[in-house]
Amino acid sequence: MTHDDWHFTRDPDEFLHRAGDFLRSRPAQHTVHLTVTETLRTRGSGVYGASDPEFGVLAGADGRGARAAFLRTPPHPLVLTALTGQEADVLAARLAGREQAGSGGLTGVNADDATAAAFAAAWQRHTGARTAVQRRLRLYRLGELTAPRPAPPGRARSAGAADRELLARWYVEFGIAVGEAAVCDPADWAADRAERGDVLFWETPDGTPVAMAGSSPPVAGQVRVNAVYTPAHLRGRGYAGAVTAEVSRAAARTDGVREVLLFTDLANPTSNGLYQRIGYRPVSDFAVHAFTG
Length: 293
Hints:
Layout: E1 6-9, H1 12-25, H2 31-43, E2 54-58, E3 68-72, E4 78-80, H3 85-103, E5 108-112, H4 113-127, E6 130-142, E7 155-158, H5 164-178, H6 186-196, E8 199-203, E9 209-215, E10 222-229, H7 239-252, E11 259-265, H8 269-277, E12 280-292
Parallel strand pairs: 4-5, 10-11
Antiparallel strand pairs: 1-2, 2-3, 3-4, 5-12, 6-11, 6-12, 7-8, 8-9, 9-10
């Protein structure tokens, strides 16, 4: 067994056959791998872009199972589980060779702090690319939910088919607000979320939506809260906290769900403070490094 025992595939079912037990052994730390792979399985390989996704599994010590994994959904960053420095260097060399052979450019890496830094440094050594930290993230797990008090006027309700236009617009605005391009086609994202009913609006007493928050489908006993957004002119009124608490409550009551998770941008102290006040507790820190040149 060596650090180069990587198996590559474009088949999400084969990926889960090889790495599923490993990923499910730490569902919080592997939440992105689990939720993205499930989305690819259920919605097709084109959901995140025109290029086919790619997966990698590093074999376990006995040559069976897995001890690390990655997924790529070009043009989005490589998403890695934890690696040692040597493992990160070997993988960077392998992927750099594949890139030179015409497999497509790597735009960045998303992983826990240490792994992301090790892989970015290795990628720079092997390719000469420039690397820079694009975003630092913190993963939180819901403890005891404490809804904000006093709650803002209004109530939470599920977004439905009649809300697709607003969902699509707010999805685009959310991406701009957090500095990320839309991962999915906005209209497709809105239609899918409206059909699933897993986005909640907070609406004022007159029925006007003023904030939204969504959740991912349950996978391996975990659900991740996402797409928390309030238009800029409506912020500071408690709408985000109220709708996040309600979507978190609904997720925690879902059959089979043991963990409710969310990511925050560490550059935003307001959101980090808000989520901790309603009961979220830090799990671990992650970083996204961008590659250019």
